[in-house]
Design goal:
Largest sheet: 6 strands, parallel
Distance between the termini: 37 Å
Strand order of the largest sheet: 3-2-4-5-1-6
Number of domains: 3
Oligomer: single chain
Structural class: alpha/beta
CATH class of the largest domain: Alpha Beta
Helix content: 40-55%
CATH architecture of the largest domain: 3-Layer(aba) Sandwich
CATH topology of the largest domain: Rossmann fold
Order of helices and strands: HHHHHEHEHEHHHHHEHEHEH
Length: about 375
């Protein structure tokens, strides 16, 4: 009875705690008692399971309670550790940082040719940083660091070791297939006002036709497909005859775009997505590297991922599926098959209050179970 009363008091104090720090303070005091870490951990796990079952049965409980307990369990089970890698000339210039066990597991993995490794983490969890540490650990390998964002590529140039080459996907594509592109033609793919001037009128206004043709072209350019088909059409009530006409017009415009001559008569200049599509269709080989590091991989379109997965070297895809900014990526990163999967759970950009609010929003909006982010 005395032990039961003690654990009941412990559970009540945990449930009444307002923050992760409150629970950690309680655990610090328990260390002076004759209680093992295993006993405390088991009770916290039991409480987390009960709270999760209550949520699944639509019993209203504050999400912050589950977050606080889960966060404490994570910190207890993933203490910081000293890095195992040997000192390198580049690492001597950087402050020494203790690694989490999640980070250490990534650095302990030896990438092999043909492997596809995913590193999934939310905002501030150190995805770019861990890619740099990985390249630093293997100085004998040549890495290609590639991203969709120019700012991230510039950051890599400053912070990554000398065995890394930094590129953007657009830079790689332009160097391969973009020699004939008009310098002013990298804006929108076939502006609607331009398309509507030469599209024949059918059952809808030329503006509607232009919008649907442009959407079909964008869908094709983002896809891994090699030909335009009806599956690239936008959703909505389009009759069969109209569907065939839109596909035919999109195919004709794409044929003109492939000429890469900035055709002023048709006003159909190539877009960035179109350049990436031409790059994919050319089946490029990224030679001279033992590994490819892909940052912000959630913004890779299926066309870009098709290029990456066709390479023979090992690939590490680091990204956050909840931070997509490219409308054509969909769930492409989640759909990619992987040989190894790692998670980064703890954000170093903000504290537990912000992380708890973000986790609650993801749970309500996207149905994610458990704390998606730890502060």
């Amino acid at each position: 009875p005395q032990a039961e009363a003690m654990w009941a008091t412990f559970a009540g104090m945990v449930l009444c705690s307002r923050s992760v720090g409150d629970i950690q303070g309680l655990l610090e005091r328990l260390r002076t008692a004759s209680l093992s870490l295993l006993e405390v951990t088991e009770r916290l796990h039991c409480m987390a399971m009960v709270l999760l079952a209550m949520r699944d049965r639509d019993i209203p409980i504050p999400s912050r309670i589950r977050y606080n307990i889960s966060h404490c369990l994570y910190l207890m089970e993933n203490p910081l550790v000293e890095p195992l890698e040997e000192e390198t000339p580049h690492s001597r210039c950087l402050p020494q940082v203790r690694l989490s066990q999640e980070q250490q597991r990534i650095l302990s993995h030896q990438l092999q040719p043909g492997q596809v490794v995913k590193i999934l983490g939310m905002a501030g969890t150190g995805k770019t940083w861990i890619l740099g540490k990985y390249a630093e650990k293997f100085p004998e390998l040549k890495f290609l660091y590639v991203t969709s964002h120019e700012a991230e590529a510039e950051k890599g140039k400053r912070e990554f070791p000398g065995n890394v080459t930094w590129k953007t996907f657009h830079g790689l594509a332009l160097g391969n297939v973009g020699r004939g592109c008009h310098p002013g033609g990298h804006q929108a793919l076939s502006e609607l006002s331009q398309l509507s001037q030469f599209l024949p009128w059918h059952s809808h206004s030329r503006w509607d036709r232009a919008r649907r043709v442009a959407q079909t072209l964008r869908s094709f350019c983002c896809s891994r497909d090699r030909e335009i088909g009806e599956w690239h059409l936008p959703e909505g009530g389009i009759d069969p005859q109209e569907r065939r006409l839109i596909v035919a017009e999109a195919q004709e415009i794409w044929h003109n775009l492939e000429q890469l001559d900035g055709n002023m008569e048709r006003r159909s200049w190539m877009s960035w997505d179109g350049i990436l599509k031409l790059w994919q269709l050319s089946r490029p080989r990224l030679e001279g590297y033992e590994a490819i590091l892909v940052d912000e991989a959630q913004d890779c379109t299926p066309a870009v991922l098709d290029v990456l997965l066709a390479q023979e070297c090992g690939i590490i895809l680091a990204g956050d599926p909840h931070q997509r900014i490219h409308p054509g990526t969909g769930n492409a990163l989640s759909a990619v098959s992987h040989t190894h999967l790692f998670h980064l759970s703890q954000s170093f950009r903000f504290g537990s209050d912000v992380a708890a609010a973000a986790s609650a929003l993801l749970e309500l909006g996207k149905g994610l179970r458990g704390p998606a982010l730890l502060g």
